[in-house]
Design a protein that fits this description.
By secondary structure, this protein is an all-alpha fold. It contains one helix and no strands.
Length: 48
């Protein structure tokens, strides 16, 4: 009963893993950019 789902999973899993890794990389990159921007803003505020 589960074998078609297992086959489907093994067929989809590599591309899904790549998608998850890509999304994670994109999310971490965005988070890093936000942190840097916040740091720059805070730095400018503290200097005034």
């Amino acid at each position: 009963m589960a074998s078609p789902y297992v086959a489907l999973f093994y067929w989809i899993a590599p591309s899904t893993t790549a998608g998850i890794v890509g999304t994670f990389a994109l999310a971490s990159g965005l988070l890093l950019m936000i942190m840097v921007l916040l740091g720059i803003i805070m730095h400018h505020r503290n200097n005034r």
